[in-house]
Amino acid sequence: MNIFYDSSTCLVVLIYWLLIVNITYRVLIKRRSIPTSMSWLLTIYIIPFIGIAIWFFFGELYLEKKHKKIARKIWSISNQYLKQLKSCKYIFQTKNSEVATSLFQLCKHRQGMFGIKNNKITLLHDNKQAIKILIRDIYLARKNIEMVFYIWKPGGIADDVAMALIHSANRGIHCRLMLDSAGSLEFFRSPWVKKMKNSGIQIVESLKVNLVGVFLRRLDVRQHRKIILIDNYISYSGSMNLVDPNLFKRSSGVGKWIDLMTRIEGPIAITIGMIYSCDWQIETGLKILPKLPNREMLKNKSNHNSSVQVIASGPGFPKNVIHQALLTTIYSAKNELIITTPYLVPSDDLLHAICTAAQRGVKVSIIIPLYHDSILVKWASRAFFSELLEAGVKIYQFKKGLLHSKSILVDHQLSLIGTANLDMRSLWLNFEITLLIDDNKFSQKLYLVQKEYISNSELLDKNIWFERENWKIILEKIFYFLSPLL
Fold first, then answer.
1. Distance between CA atoms of 398 and 456, rounded to whole angstroms?
2. In Å, what is the CA distance from 282 to each residue of 64, 216, 435?
3. Which residue numbers are catalytic?
4. Closest to 33 measured CA to CA, from 350, 440, 446
5. Which three-class secondary structure state does DSSP give residue 409?
6. Over the stretch 437-479, which tens digit does the pLDDT of each residue have?
7. What's the pLDDT score for residue 90?
8. Can you tell me the mean pLDDT for 326-348?
9. Which residues pair with 203 in a beta bridge?
10. Predicted model pTM
11. Are strands 144-149 and 202-206 parallel, antiparallel or unpaired?
12. Whether CATH 3.30.870.10 fits 321-485
């Protein structure tokens, strides 16, 4: 009995140390940032069994083998399509404003395209109104409707969208719906799935969460995009999930969720459609690339001097492109930089870029929620406040609900709106999308919305902040240590 016990103990110890050595090797070989690598190493050595379990589920960015194989094929197909698209020179804007030139040049290098011109852009900052306009567009659709959302929560006005989709599908409109498995769990458990499928709507459960998936890919890689495409001409994107703002997470006590969406008519829908096509093909293996644009798409001449670019992130997409775009944007600012984000856990590079902007004379404002739905991220965010305040950054805490908008405005000219938060998950893990808009008129509208956010916010007092209790400082440091893993 003792021999069996001793043998078992030795075997467990051997397996344990083999796992530790293997994980250590994987952490070092990946050439992550030093803080991230140190956080992982300390986690697996200080809390070994828990640390190993966390690494097993969240340590490496990978998809299932099926997804990987499809992703490799997609880019060869997309590159061929991109060559054809680039021949449609009449849709491209080759000149940009001074503040946007570096950013759009980066995108040209990383994604192979200039910005797209002749788009009519509308900023929607009221969720309920945005959904009403969307319902109207769905009823008016003539050919196809494609959607992808992180969260679709049945109930209220969200059910009106479902009914509009069913009505359109019944009259022959080709409808496709892709929803994240974890984020839209309530939807997939609701009767709406059967109702929609019976009407002919194609529904895909993206990055499906199940027991088998635990062993095939990271659980926390999520489909976080919010995209709507109608007739390959009208497109929506922004921070809004498909939920009724009067019902969503009301029990959490954070108040109404505040979002920003863009509605765009014009050829930018083609490039957004490419991203949707890649996501659809990763999940289904089926290719649904949109038709190439024709000169009819340039009928809108109101914004002929503007330029719109789309950047997408996620496994299989250009690596670190959103992170690079954010850094380029911040360093391009000369006069004023306004950022809104619900989750402020920036990389060291982003933190230093923001602080440097303030120190070189740029008026920098960051607007975040006062009330938060994530305790972990709330405390991790606070760990960055001191450095930001010392650099001269103004931090506003929005009081009238959970500010979920993700936006950046540079010098009243360049706007970034999308789904990516200023945290590690959005920058390096999830499938995200961000619109880059070089348009003075649109930026003025965004500025007015951000000014309204500021008027409904509390300015964080630097003196009061540095006199906070010691237990809060300790808690912030603990969560700062975990921030590279969030």
1. 6
2. 10, 15, 22
3. 224, 226, 231, 404, 406, 411
4. 350
5. strand
6. 999 999 999 999 999 999 999 999 999 999 888 888 888 877 7
7. 83
8. 96
9. 177
10. 0.86
11. unpaired
12. yes
Please give the radius of gyration of the chain, using alpha carbons only, rounded to the nearest integer. Answer: 23
pLDDT per position as a tens digit, 112-150: 889 999 899 999 999 999 999 999 999 999 999 999 999
Q: Tokens representing 416? A: 């970034």
Q: Are strands 407-410 and 261-265 parallel, antiparallel or unpaired?
A: unpaired
**Which residues contact residue 377 at a Cβ distance below 8 angstroms, ignoring those fewer than 6 apart?**
343, 345, 423, 486
The pLDDT tens digits for 166-182 are: 999 999 999 999 999 99
Q: Is 412 left (phi over 0), alpha (psi -120 to 50) or beta?
A: left
Tell me, what's the pLDDT at 379?
84
Q: Which fold has domain 65-96+114-306?
A: Endonuclease; Chain A (3.30.870)
Q: Quote the CA–CA distance of 363 and 359 in Å, as a whole number.
A: 9
CB-count burial class (<10 Å; 0-12, 13-18, 19+) for 79:
exposed
User: Would you say how long the chain is, in residues?
Assistant: 486
Task: Tell me which amino acid residue 405 is.
Answer: S
Name the residue ranges covered by the structural domains of the chain: 2-58, 65-96+114-306, 321-485
DSSP for residue 172 = T
> What pLDDT does residue 20 have?
74
